[in-house]
Design goal:
165 residues; alpha+beta; 3 helices
């Protein structure tokens, strides 16, 4: 028989699966504040953490369940892996997304299958030609906005460069 999970059970499952740490505090206003982060918690609070989500205002989060629901939504979105086609000339194209890195790697390799690989001795200019490309995997989006500035995230996996023709 199928059992519906409570928000708290879903929340605990997402925390366990993602490895994300969090602070969920009730502000003086009665609203909840949610901070999700990754990092080493032995070094002190936040300076060495990668903040995944922070919503200090939380104007519409009057209860704990609403804050937990937001957390679940944000963490699932941010911890998915996105696969892009990149030729270093045109704007990268989002191909698909995966829920874990192994699945993302397999999808990237599948997208590159069948193309001839650019060999080390080839005279291909991989950075100035749309005739070569590779498939790149990112945890979350390729570009995020930090302090109103776009920031390119790190590639977590990439195929070898290949010829597109």
């Amino acid at each position: 028989m199928f059992k519906l999970q409570s928000i708290e059970e879903q929340f605990n499952e997402v925390v366990k699966e993602s490895g994300v740490k969090y602070d969920l505090d009730k502000a003086m206003s009665g609203h909840y504040r949610l901070v999700a982060y990754r990092g080493d918690d032995s070094v002190g609070y936040l300076p060495n953490y990668d903040i995944i989500h922070e919503d200090p205002a939380c104007e519409d989060l009057y209860d704990k369940d609403s804050a937990m629901s937001l957390f679940i939504e944000v963490i699932k979105e941010r911890t998915s892996y996105k696969i892009y086609y990149v030729d270093n000339v045109n704007e990268p194209a989002l191909l698909c997304s995966a829920s874990n890195l192994d699945e993302a790697k397999a999808m990237a390799d599948n997208e590159a299958a069948g193309y001839d690989r650019v060999e080390d001795g080839d005279n291909a200019d991989i950075f100035a030609s749309a005739s070569t490309a590779r498939i790149e995997v990112y945890e979350g989006d390729m570009v995020t906005i930090v302090d109103d500035e776009p920031e390119l995230n790190d590639v977590v996996y990439a195929t070898e460069y290949f010829y597109t023709k």
